[in-house]
Design goal:
The complex is a heterodimer of chains A (196) and B (91). By secondary structure, chain A is an all-alpha fold. Chain A has a single domain, classed as Cytochrome c oxidase, subunit III, four-helix bundle (Four Helix Bundle (Hemerythrin (Met), subunit A), Up-down Bundle). Helices cover 74% and strands 0% of the residues of chain A. Chain A contains 6 helices and no strands. The longest helix of chain A is centred in the C-terminal third of the chain and has 31 residues. The radius of gyration of chain A is 19 Å and the shape is elongated. Chain A starts with 22 loop residues before the first helix and ends with a helix. With 91 residues, chain B is an all-alpha fold. Helix content of chain B is 73%, strand content 0%. Chain B is flat. The chains are: A mainly alpha (196), B mainly alpha (91).
């Protein structure tokens, strides 16, 4: 491991909004949509506590934990990559690549989990618990897939020489998007894997 | 192939470590499924503590415009409060 000399890069314009200000309209809107999902889960659970508790046992909490740690570690790399890019360091593309690996592992885990559940007879049509599980975690999985594309774009931009004036803000925006995906999973993990 | 050095700032590493520890504590409480309302509220509170930490630190909300801080905090309080109240009401 050798430390490459850090060189100044154009930083994002001074703004009091991390990334693009307009992106926050989408981010906060998406978070509100997920608040509706979280509430729907609890409302659906109200009259089906026994069925929800039974269905919950079909989920592997260890897999949920592994996925949570993957996304948190992805966030660590994204934050490190953003910092490296701002300092003009050379590690940003690699950091974003490692974050993408965490995201890809999350996707693989989810596919394995969905396959196991469906082959065991737990489909979106078998039980309200699984209907909400597949829909809400599926929508979240779509967010992760988009985040993988975003990370690839961020890694490419971070490694570009000379940097474009818009790169810094685009990378900061991508980081905000990744962290939102992480943040939403934290609540899904709690509701589906920790609360019976 | 040139080796690449990725430097993880101490504050970022500290936030990640706190998030991992809270996750493991919540998993220890809820890994076998939380059934009591009190414990469920504790697990939810720990979860939203993590959400707040991700937002404030990783998403850099803590040093953003007041309106963004207010909107994020508002979402956090409303969502956490709503879910915890619903759990207490037996939902």
């Amino acid at each position: 491991m050798t430390a490459a000399p850090e060189r100044a890069r154009p930083t994002e314009p001074v703004s009091r909004f991390p990334g693009e200000a307009g992106l926050w309209v989408f981010v906060l809107g998406d978070m509100c949509a997920f608040t509706v999902f979280f509430t729907t889960f609890l409302v659906e659970r109200r009259d089906r506590h026994a069925a929800f508790s039974a269905a919950h046992t079909a989920l592997d909490p260890g897999l949920g934990l592994a996925n949570t740690l993957l996304l948190l570690t992805g966030s660590l790399f994204v934050a490190a990559g953003l910092g490296a890019h701002r300092r003009g360091g050379s590690g940003a593309p690699s950091a974003f690549g490692l974050a993408a690996l965490c995201g890809a592992a999350f996707v693989v885990d989810k596919v394995v989990e969905y396959t196991d559940l469906i082959t065991s007879g737990h489909t979106p049509y078998s039980e309200t618990f699984f209907a909400t599980f597949f829909v809400f975690t599926g929508i979240h999985l779509l967010h992760v897939l988009i985040a993988l594309v975003v990370l690839a774009v961020m890694a490419r931009a971070a490694g570009r020489t000379p940097a474009r004036p818009t790169d810094a803000r685009m990378i900061a925006s991508g980081a905000v998007y990744w962290h939102m995906v992480d943040l939403l999973w934290l609540v899904l993990f709690c509701l589906y894997y920790l609360m019976g | 192939m040139t080796p690449v050095h990725i430097r993880v700032p101490r504050d970022v590493l500290a936030v990640w470590a706190i998030l991992v520890v809270i996750t493991l504590v919540a998993f220890g409480i809820g890994g076998e499924a939380v059934t009591g309302r009190g414990l469920a509220s504790v697990v939810l509170a720990l979860t939203f503590a993590k959400v707040g930490l991700v937002g404030a630190s990783f998403m850099e909300v803590h040093r953003s415009a007041a309106i963004l801080r207010g909107l994020f905090l508002g979402w956090l309080v409303v969502t956490a409060g709503l879910l915890i109240v619903l759990v207490h009401l037996g939902f």
